[in-house]
Amino acid sequence: MDDNTIEEGKTMAAICYITFIGLLIAFLSNKDKNNAFTRFHIGQSLRVWILGLILYLFAIFMVIYTGMGFFGYLGWVGWILAIMGIINAIKGKTDPLPLIGAIGS
Fold it and tell me: Using CA of residue 54, residue 57, residue 62, residue 65, what is the dihedral sign?
């Protein structure tokens, strides 16, 4: 990937990690441009939000049925991965994120 592609895609790559609506905005705006850097981060972001939702629902289930409140911290994993993705996007990196980076690629 060349530097021009990375520079053009940095903004949308960072936006796709900011909530699920940001992901939709980045996806729709990249549809015409087809920037490879943004496409990579859209894929990572989709995996982050799916994992975050699954862990959040699991955490709620575990807190309700076991009463162990520390499971509630699992709900933060998606946000932590999203912040890591934003940092990678701003720095122009295409490093896969931990836990989900290689899934489905």
Answer: negative
